[in-house]
Amino acid sequence: MKFEEFQELSVEEKKAFYLSLDWHEFVMSLLDESELNDGYPKADGLRRVSELLLGDIIDSKPTEIFPVSGNGIGRATVGYSVTFRWWDDSTRTYADVADVFDGNINDDFIIYALATAATRAEGRALRKALKLKICTAEELSDKAKKVQTKPTESSVTENQISFLNNRCKSMNIDVMKLINSSEERYHSVEQLSKKKCSVFIEQINRFYRKEEEVPQDIVGFQENWRGK
To answer: In this predicted structure, what is the pLDDT of residue 152?
Structure first.
């Protein structure tokens, strides 16, 4: 669905779409590249998109603050709430908390522990309102990303990546343009799940069997695509 189509929906239709499985991808499609960091949405982007889709933000503030001085060295905890005037003219409030300590923040930002915790908590409240199934960029420091990106049983495998590379190379297809041809956006192939990668493999196999024509906008294999 495009934003213009969403605008034309009735209140009941918007509610049904908001509760549908397609909602997450729709929200992510509205974020600009400048509002993403390695594919994770930034708080400022969620602020913009939430007002675009849900209604005016009529209140946005920290509700609880436990600063560094009262919470241990290098640690801060903040509760944050955001209140919207919804499309049906009702008022809805979403809230969450976030903490910062030396184990989940980059060393350069530890002196801004309280501000970072506030931004993280606001981002969590916004993604809760937007029903997103992904962390915000502010939640994932380099330290946290190392934990977040550890391979799991559902992660894309090297065999799948190798197949994508070889098949795309033989067919002169840009791998990153292929995996970003859907509404979801990926900054690296490692962000794919095993299941999602299987979808792209099946798609490229349909191209290979000439069951579908290769779109011109994904043509052009890039040798260093994994290094981008």
So the answer is: 52
